[in-house]
Every structure is written in C-alpha cells, then in structure tokens.
Amino acid sequence: MTRSLPLVGFLLLVALFGFGIWWNTQHDPREVPSPLIGKSAPAFDLPLLDDPSRTASKAAMLGKPYLVNVFASWCVACGEEHPVLMAQGRTLGVPLIGYDYKDDPADAKAWLAQHGNPYDLVVADREGRTAIDFGVYGAPESFLIDAKGVIRYKHIGPFTPEVIEHKLKPLIAKLKQEAP
Amino acid sequence: MNRALLRALATFLLAFSCLAAAQAIDPLPFKDHAQEVRFQNLTRQLRCLVCQNENLADSNADLARDLRHEVFGLMQQGKSDDAIKQYLVDRYSDFVLYDPPVKRSTWLLWFGPGLFLLFGAAVVLVTIRKRSRAARIDSRLVDNATIEQGDDW
Fold first, then answer.
1. I need a surface site. Which of A44, B46, B81, B135 has the fewest CB within 10 A?
2. E strands, A83-161, where?
C-alpha cells in the first residue's frame, strides 16, 4: 500500500492538471463573469451616432426586448464579428442596437459605411462612461435586454453563427413568449 | 573608454525607465499627499480587466486609465474605500479584486491549501507510525541482520 502511494499521488496530480487543461479549453480565462445578468440594466441616455442632438435612453427603450452590441472601429474582433451581424442581424427578431464604444464618430461612420450597417440604431459613448456602468471591458460585447429593462444575457467576444443559433435565438424566443 | 560607454548606457537606460514610469502615471489633481497615498493603495488592490495580471495602478490600458479616473472621482465624492470597491464589484464582479472575498464559492481557494497540508500531515503521521511499529517488531524478532527489510517508500 505505502509502496503505491507515490504512484497514487502522481495519478491524482495528473487528473487534477488534466482537469485544469480541459477546463481551460471550455472556458476563456479572460472572460469576466458579469454580475449584471438578471439585474436591471443601468440607466443610459446616449447620443445617436448619426444625429448627436437626439438621444436613446433606457426609459425610451422599455417595452420590447433588444440586443445591444458594443463595437468600435478600432476593434479588430468587431471586424470578425461584423459579417455575422450583417448576415443574421435582421433575422433575430429584436432591434439590434449598436453601441459605439470609445470611438471617434467620424471613424465609426466611415467604418459602418465601408462594411455595412447591421444596426437599427447606433448610440455613441465616446468617453466610455456609461460602458463602465454596463461592466464593459472590451469590444465586442453584447447584452440582451428584456422588455422590462433587465439584462438577461451577456456575450463577451465576437458572435459566431453557432452562438447566435444555439444561445441567442432560443433566449430571444423565450423573451418573446414572456412579452409578445 | 569602456567605463565611459557603460556610463552613457546607464544614463540612457535610466532616462528611459523614468520616462516609462512617468507615462504610466497620469497626473491627477490630488488634494494632498495622504489622498494620493490612499489612491495608490486602493488602485493597487484592483485588477485591470484588460491586462488581467496587472493592477489598476500599474496598467497602461485605456480602460484602466478610465477606471483610475472613476476611482479618483468617487474619492472626491467622499466615498470610502469599501464603497469604491463595491462600486466596481457591482459592475465587474469579484474578479476586479485582487483579494477574493471569503464566501462559499471561494472556500476551496482559501482553505484548499490548508486541506492539502492536513492531508500531507496525515500521510506522514501514518507512515511514521507504521515504520516505528515495524521497527519494534523487527527488534523483537531479529538477532541477525539478514532479514530482508522492505522499503516502505
């Protein structure tokens, strides 16, 4: 028994480290869990990118679910995500709100003109103040907000067709059932 | 000659390291030195969300600068350190704290090493007991030294 103890210890460690490796392939260690899921979205009142004299606010958006997609013209991963949103944005069944994060409005407009605009509405947060309330720490990030203004889901990093199909769309379907 | 070269190199390096440090710290209008110390202390306990192995005080990331300004602003409003930490935890979860709080989900993290130590101690204790028992039996039995002694380990 005591003879096999080192072997047992070794195998336990192999199992532990193996589990660690497996865990890290399933989870992005850079992903910060959002404490805001299931909580009321922070109040916001942000100017529209196209017309800064008008704003979009949380209060005005209440009543139907919507998806907020944080993007920026300087963000490389947003460029990867963009074709997916162009292809699928209109098929989601909820308004897609672009959230231009810490970006020069001129750059953002040029970027959207060049790559296409998948958004129903684009708000601009040049200083990133409101983004801090949302717990944004990079782009792209996306928030699914329900009709009552509660954040139901957050996706960190670019949307892929798989994530949209298997995570986002079922959630949107559920929200629509709650508040048709 | 060589020494002059070395000196030049040292001066060069020193100058640049100062430059780097000066760039990392953006000047904030602190009321007094005590407040600055408090600010430095607090930002050192907070994690930069972008470059996650750096704290807010050291990080050069854009978001880290924004959050430093946020912390500074909250300090001006008279918020306590705990209130400021809670403000950030509400937005970025416990992840933003370098010291994870003791709660159910972090019990293993906090007490796991202790458990490992206890487990190791138990193994050592059992082994010692076994050996001393074996030694006692041996000494009773043995007249000659030819008995094969198993290696416990």
1. B135
2. 96-101, 121-125, 141-145, 151-156
* Chain A positions in Cβ-Cβ contact with residue B63 (cut-off 8 Å): 128, 137-138
Indicate the pTM of the whole model: 0.77
B92 and A137: CB-CB below 8 Å? Answer: yes
> Are B130 and A138 an interchain contact pair (Cβ–Cβ within 8 Å)?
no
Sequence-distant (≥ 6) Cβ neighbours of residue B150 within 8 angstroms: none
Residue B59, min C-alpha distance to chain A (Å): 14
Which residue type does A104 have? D
Q: What is the ipTM of this complex?
A: 0.82
Strand order in A151-156's β-sheet?
A121-125, A96-101, A66-71, A141-145, A151-156
What is the sign of the dihedral through the CA atoms of A93, A99, A105 and A106? negative
pLDDT band at B142 (very low <50, low <70, confident <90, very high): low
Are A35 and B130 a contacting pair at CB < 8 A?
Answer: no
Q: Do B93 and A2 touch (CB under 8 A)?
A: no
Question: Rounded to an integer, what distance in angstroms lies between the CA atom of residue A95 and that of residue A64?
Answer: 9
| Alpha-carbon distances, residue A172 vs A46, A165, B5, B90 (angstroms) | 24, 11, 68, 25
